[in-house]
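User: Could you check the structure of this?
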Amino acid sequence: DHDIVAHLPDGVAVLSESGEILWANERLATWCGREPCGCDLFAALDLPEQSLGEFRDSLAAGKPAAATVRTSDNRYFDVAASAAFVVSGDNDPSGSRTIITVRDVTHAILEQQKRAAIHAAGQNLADLSPTELADMTVDERIELLKSNIIHYSKDLLQFDVVEIRLLDRQTGKLEPLLAEGMQPEAESRVLYAKPDGNGVTGYVAATGRSYLCNDTTRDSRYLEGCKGARSSMTVPLLLH
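Assistant: Sure, the predicted C-alpha cells are below.
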C-alpha cells in the first residue's frame, strides 16, 4: 500500500536507470532536508562518493547492493538496493527502476564506537612499563588508575556515573575501588564475580565479556546504581 510505504520509519526511494530519485517516502525526504525527486540519491543524503564505489558498480550492473556510509554531519546510514526491474507503458518508456531502502543506524554505530573507545582506554590505563610501575607505590598506582578512569569516562565518553571494582581472586569478591555518581547503597552493595545474582558487574567479572545494557528497566541482570539511568555499559579491565 502506497500510504504505508510513505510513512515507514525507514527511508524508501525508487531510482531511475541514471540514479535519480523518481519517488521517495516522507522519511527519506526528511533526511535529505529538501524535495529529493530529480536528485541523485547519494548527493541528496550528502553521502561521500569515495565510500560508494562498489555500491554504484552493483547498481549499474542491476545487482543487489548494500553499504553503511557516514554523512558529513556524522550520521550513519545503512543503504540497500534491490536488483533493478524493468518497467514499460504508454506513459513510461522502457527503463530500469531500483528500490532503495535507507535506515538510520547512527545510534548503533556510535555505541559501537563508544565500546571501542572504552577498550582502547582500558589498554591505555594498563599501559605502564615495568620500570614505571616499580617506581610507584601501590597507592600511587591506584590514584593514577582512578584519575585516568575519570578522564576517559567523563571527558572522553561523557559518562556521568562510573563505578570500578577490583576482583579478589581468592574470594571472588568485587571490592569497590572508585565510584562517581553512584547511590550510597549501590556503592556498598556486596558483589561477587558470578554470572547470576550479582548484577551486570558480577556477570562481566565472571565471563570476562563486555556487557551493554540498552534498557535498564527490562534487563533482569541490571541492579540499580543511580536514579534515572536508562542504559549502562560494563567492561572487564585486566591489569598486570
